[in-house]
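Input record, target 12 of the design panel.
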C-alpha cells in the first residue's frame, strides 16, 4: 500500500514536471514567434494649397489665331476678361490650339532683323493678391526646336502700378520671376530671369543687367529636356518691402534647381497678382536669327498659394 508520504512526493514531482513543461512550451513559442516588421513612418502631409488660376481648357479645337476672349475663357471659364488681363498681340495670331487644352506657339523668324524679337505670344492673367504664390508651367520643346540664343517662357509677376516689370523697366512695387532659355553655349539651359530692385549688390552668379529703373538678373538652372513635356515651378515669397528678405525658389520636374532668400524684389508695398506667359525668342546681332519658324507647346499655367492647415 502506498503511504501518504509517497503520494505527497509524487504530487510534488508532478507539479515540478508541469512547471518545467510550461516553461519549455513558453520557450518554444518564443523561438517560433517572429516579430512583425515595423510599418514605415508616415510621410509628412502634403502642404495644403489653394488653386488661384489653372488652364488652358475649353480652347476652340485646332485653331490658328486666338482672340483675347478665347484665351480668357481658357483660364477663367468665360470670355469676360478680368481687370488687368491682356494679351500681346491681339489676337494671338501665331498661337494655335492643339485639341482643346494645349497651345502651340509659333516663332516666325525669317526676315527679322538681327537684334529684334521674333513673333511672340504674351498673356498676363490676374489672380488674387498673394504674398506667397507658385507658378507651375508644363511645356514642351520638340526635338527639332530651332534654338535662338535666348528666349522666354513665363512665370509670376507682382504688378502694383507704374512700369510693367519687363522690357528693361520696373517700378518700386513691382517684380517678376520667369523661366527663360539660354543657348549661348553648346546646349540649351533653363534660366531664372528676375526683375528686382536696384539694391547695389552683385549677386555673383551668371549674368547681371543694370537699367535705370530696375535690375535684371539671370540664373542658370541646368539642361532643358526636349521631346517630352517638362514641368517647371517658381515660388515667390515676399517679405517686408526693402528688407532684403524676399525669396525665389525654382524647380524643374520637381527638383529644386535654385533658391535665394536675400533678394530685394519690392521697395514699396505690393503683392503678387499676375501669371505671365511671355513666349518669345530673340537673338543678338552676332548670331542673327534662325531661318523659317519654330514652335513650342504649352500644356499648363497654374497658380497656387499655401493654405493654413
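The sequence produced for target 12 reads:
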Amino acid at each position: 500500500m502506498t503511504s501518504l508520504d509517497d503520494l505527497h512526493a509524487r504530487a510534488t514531482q508532478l507539479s515540478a514536471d508541469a512547471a518545467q513543461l510550461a516553461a519549455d512550451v513558453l520557450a518554444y513559442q518564443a523561438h517560433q514567434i517572429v516579430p512583425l516588421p515595423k510599418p514605415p513612418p508616415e510621410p509628412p502631409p502634403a502642404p495644403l494649397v489653394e488653386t488661384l488660376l489653372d488652364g488652358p481648357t475649353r480652347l476652340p479645337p485646332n485653331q490658328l489665331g486666338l482672340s483675347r476672349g478665347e484665351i480668357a475663357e481658357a483660364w477663367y471659364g468665360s470670355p469676360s476678361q478680368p481687370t488687368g488681363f491682356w494679351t500681346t498681340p491681339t489676337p494671338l495670331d501665331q498661337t494655335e490650339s492643339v485639341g482643346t487644352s494645349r497651345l502651340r506657339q509659333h516663332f516666325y523668324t525669317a526676315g527679322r532683323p538681327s537684334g529684334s524679337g521674333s513673333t511672340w505670344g504674351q498673356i498676363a492673367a490676374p489672380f488674387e493678391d498673394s504674398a506667397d504664390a507658385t507658378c507651375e508651367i508644363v511645356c514642351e520643346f520638340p526635338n527639332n526646336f530651332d534654338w535662338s540664343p535666348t528666349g522666354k517662357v513665363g512665370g509670376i509677376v507682382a504688378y502694383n502700378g507704374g512700369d510693367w516689370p519687363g522690357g528693361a523697366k520696373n517700378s518700386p512695387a513691382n517684380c517678376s520671376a520667369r523661366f527663360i532659355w539660354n543657348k549661348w553655349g553648346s546646349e540649351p539651359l533653363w534660366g531664372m530671369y528676375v526683375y528686382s530692385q536696384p539694391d547695389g549688390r552683385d549677386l555673383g552668379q551668371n549674368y547681371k543687367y543694370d537699367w535705370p529703373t530696375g535690375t535684371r538678373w539671370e540664373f542658370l538652372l541646368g539642361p532643358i529636356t526636349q521631346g517630352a513635356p517638362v514641368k517647371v515651378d517658381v515660388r515667390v515669397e515676399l517679405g517686408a518691402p526693402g528688407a532684403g528678405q524676399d525669396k525665389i525658389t525654382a524647380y524643374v520636374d520637381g527638383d529644386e534647381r535654385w533658391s535665394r532668400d536675400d533678394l530685394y524684389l519690392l521697395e514699396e508695398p505690393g503683392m503678387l497678382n499676375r501669371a505671365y506667359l511671355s513666349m518669345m525668342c530673340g537673338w543678338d546681332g552676332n548670331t542673327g536669327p534662325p531661318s523659317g519658324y519654330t514652335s513650342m507647346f504649352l500644356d499648363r499655367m497654374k497658380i497656387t498659394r499655401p493654405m493654413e492647415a
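The chain has a mean pLDDT of 86.
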